[in-house]
């Protein structure tokens, strides 16, 4: 975990990211105004540093008006219970699960997708956390160089680093490193410990069941003429490893990649996992498979051996373990139906 605590005597901040023109943002004063949802002793850990994508960011005080961009970042914050430290969120891929729905609804939604830079500035954020590098476009949050020159701390998921060399090897440990870094940034490190322990226990049960043993699986994300598939370097592979299944496209290094229907036909998978997202629903993909004269002859299509997973449960984050549990349960159901 790449986190360092700085002495409280530090007066200058290195590599702090602040939004240009955000002079009206509330200043932190832990003595007179600790901000919402203060936890006992949380102010004493600041300032702290969090590092990702080759950048170290210093947070001088506990965030009180953070903004999360992308569903993965939002759900890490919700899982850590810091919704009352958020000034806004943006950009969902699918529905927020019921367990966090009330918390999510308590936070302002700045935009359906990315907010404009003006709308983001209007929220007066004191911390910006995103899952994908696209959030730090000049027209959205601003580039990280621009933010570095101006003033609000920010953090980009290590899985969203633009340079491949900066991304961690995919693993649940790497997911949990991000959770721990974000928890420290928000001043609630103890909540990360509890969350990681819960997810490890869930994974232990999934691996013991090994519901996917002996199964060849196609992870179908989207596409028609060319299938966009879960490959060997990301969330889909971690889920399939957890359930003991073999990934038809596990030999491709990226998290997701262009596959070929020829390889799918040759592999004739036992099960097809369908990502369900706003831009490509599971139902749309089933319709495509069953309408194609060649693909409908696949064993998995003929048997309707489909497993449906929300897209947000296939990306590295706090729902990936839930995705593995869902895949495991559905594989058990398919086996029982045969």
UniProtKB/TrEMBL annotation:
<dbReference type="InterPro" id="IPR002491">
    <property type="entry name" value="ABC_transptr_periplasmic_BD"/>
</dbReference>
<feature type="domain" description="Fe/B12 periplasmic-binding">
    <location>
        <begin position="65"/>
        <end position="338"/>
    </location>
</feature>
<protein>
    <submittedName>
        <fullName>ABC transporter substrate-binding protein</fullName>
    </submittedName>
</protein>
<comment type="similarity">
    <text>Belongs to the bacterial solute-binding protein 8 family.</text>
</comment>
<feature type="signal peptide">
    <location>
        <begin position="1"/>
        <end position="25"/>
    </location>
</feature>
<dbReference type="Pfam" id="PF01497">
    <property type="entry name" value="Peripla_BP_2"/>
</dbReference>
<dbReference type="InterPro" id="IPR050902">
    <property type="entry name" value="ABC_Transporter_SBP"/>
</dbReference>
<keyword id="KW-0732">Signal</keyword>
